[in-house]
Design a protein that fits this description.
Shape: elongated
Structural class: alpha+beta
CATH class of the largest domain: Alpha Beta
Helix content: 40-55%
CATH superfamily of the largest domain: GAD-like domain
Radius of gyration: 17 Å
Number of helices: 9
Distance between the termini: 6 Å
Length: 207
């Protein structure tokens, strides 16, 4: 999954250098997985130009992940298999209200299943989110029935009770799961920040 999607971001000759990122690919696949969607709708939802959207679709077609009909783009069998694998790693994405952990109006949390061992300090996730246009990212790890925040809190339920209640009500946490929260001034930037941050948790040995 990692190798396949990241290969779509590489420069290929002939053709333009892709002006989209991994989080655009993820969002595009999510939209297409819901049913037929046209190029115009994709461009609007992804917040990228039609030229970039055209290149993105062509890359997905060349990888045999999507096909295109008069009704729009849809997943191929290979695309469905990849998306199923993706959802097994990232089973949930939810919106969070402002709380003690996140001070922006727009916050999107992504659940990364079993990725706790790939978290160090959370700085890598924060930096990735900021590069995607978000204000930042908050990284939490669920271990031994406790939600922790590296270098900040050994027990989020005690230090940040409102955030803990929101997260545990919305997400189905299992041992060694990671919750990455992208925060921004818009939902799109918050979502892109969350996906960019969550993607850093997928190391090469997951590919």
């Amino acid at each position: 999954m990692k190798k396949l999607l990241e290969n779509l971001l590489e420069e290929k000759a002939p053709g333009p250098f892709p002006s989209f990122a991994i989080y655009h690919l993820i969002k595009a696949l999510e939209l297409v997985a819901k049913g037929h969607v046209g190029r115009g709708k994709l461009s609007e939802e992804l917040k990228i130009g039609e030229g970039a959207t055209r290149t993105l679709i062509e890359r997905l077609k060349a990888a045999h992940l999507v096909s295109v009909s008069k009704k729009g783009c849809f997943l191929t069998e290979k695309g469905k298999k990849l998306w199923s694998e993706f959802e097994s790693t990232f089973p949930q994405k939810v919106s969070l209200e402002k709380n003690e952990l996140v001070l922006t109006e727009c916050n999107i949390a992504v659940l990364a299943r079993g990725c706790g061992d790939n978290v160090r300090t959370g700085v890598e996730q924060r930096d990735a989110a900021m590069m995607a246009g978000a204000k930042g990212a908050t990284t939490l790890v669920f271990r031994n029935k406790k939600l922790t925040m590296p270098n900040i809190s050994d027990d989020v339920s005690h230090n940040f009770p409102l955030a803990f209640r929101q997260i545990t009500m919305l997400l189905k946490l299992k041992e060694n799961d990671v919750v990455v929260i992208g925060s921004a001034d818009t939902l799109t930037k918050a979502e892109y920040g969350a996906w960019a941050a969550a993607w850093t948790l997928i190391k090469n040995d997951y590919a």
